[in-house]
Specification:
alpha/beta; about 475 residues; three-stranded antiparallel beta sheet
Length: about 475
Amino acid sequence: MSSSKTAGRRRRLFQREQDEADEEVAPSPKRKRLPGALAISAGSPKQAAPPTPACSPSACQRATLSTAWESSELPCREEEITSISDFLRGTLVAGKSGCLYISGVPGTGKTACVNAVLSSMKEAEAAQIVKINAFGHSQQPARIYNVLAEALLPKVKSSISSACCSQLTSFLTKTNKFVVLILDEIDQLVTKDSSILYQIFEWALLPKSRLILIAIANTLSFTSTELKRLQLKGCEPQQLYFAPYTSAQLATILRSRVEAACAGSVLMSTDAIELCARRIAAVTGDVRKALDVCRYAVDQIATPTTPSGRQRSRLSSSVSTDSPLSRDKDVFFQPGGLVSEAPDTPRRVTVGQISRVLCRLYGSRLMSSTSSAGGDDGADTAVPLKQKILLCTMLLLKKSNHSVVTLPQLEDAFRFVCKARSIECEDDILALCESLDNQGLVVTKRNQKNPRLSKVVLQFSDSEVEQYSSDKAMLSAIAALHLPQKR
């Protein structure tokens, strides 16, 4: 009876100690702001604290795997960073305004690359930098004028959006200092006539304008579909497309994050990193999802820390004095009241743990290939619904003597098939092709000058596509459709 009471007392004491203990993480340093810069970042996460030797191994590894972690290097985006740098230097050094539209699916490093370029570019120090995330302004898009006026014209107190717009127009043509405006999630400002978006883009086209606009959104064809008037005027902005990360690129990024942890705090095995990269690249290519998976896996294997001196004295008081545990300096309490020897090295995330985390976070669509392949290291054979439909659409085009199709041809056929099957189709066709390319199902022959003219080639036969899609009924139904003939 007394032993059971002692065990219960130990469990309660351990739980109380766990609740009282704070994680030993160094305070986050203040971010250094560029001279003369003003940054407004709506809803952006704070910078994660850098790992220090005082951190526990799991806390140190979690810090480097955080989506808020800011590194001096951005692997696998060297070309995109060079393009952004060339655009900014070409405008700031030449003393002229300009527009750059950056597109790409979420989690491809668009905003991170822009921030990295601005923080390292000496030419930008003399400019006034304004960062605004338009997310949340979809209900009242005109409020963006008020937000801009608050950033650029602090003395203006008007709450009327039209008045703010007029004052901003005058300010941007008379100020001596260049204004670099980074407008993220710009598609949130779409209205019936797109007047707000036209106004923002046309500010950079005014005579003597001092505005350099960098607009960021997810859709590749946004400016050509929503802002057709810019194209008619011959003033379409420069465009830069961020392709989804491939499995090799995701693995490189994850390894750099994992290895950035303190010595002895690397908790991810190489095989686990490779598996996570392959599975996420097969679905979205979103690096944030890959980081979330790894961080969650580290949480699952977090090693309990050895109690401090005060905690040890309180814990030992609950253990019988004649127990050998009271004389052992290398024991610590685990959840559930168990006592065990402190490990010499922290546990590492394995392939099996990554597989379980992927299944829990993103469902069986990522894991259905595991059982058919015979293990966690099997090849990825599961394909999401939209990618299945795209594969079947390519088969349909192939039967119509279109073995190689351009992106517009594929997009028209894909939307026709989705409509025939009563499926909503808001996906970016190029992003879907890139995901299938990452899996080796198609080959996307990129057109560097105009990504919309890229060509797509199916890499597998009818029977192999049927195996990958694993849905014979859908394949047969799509095969029976007749694509409309263009006049």
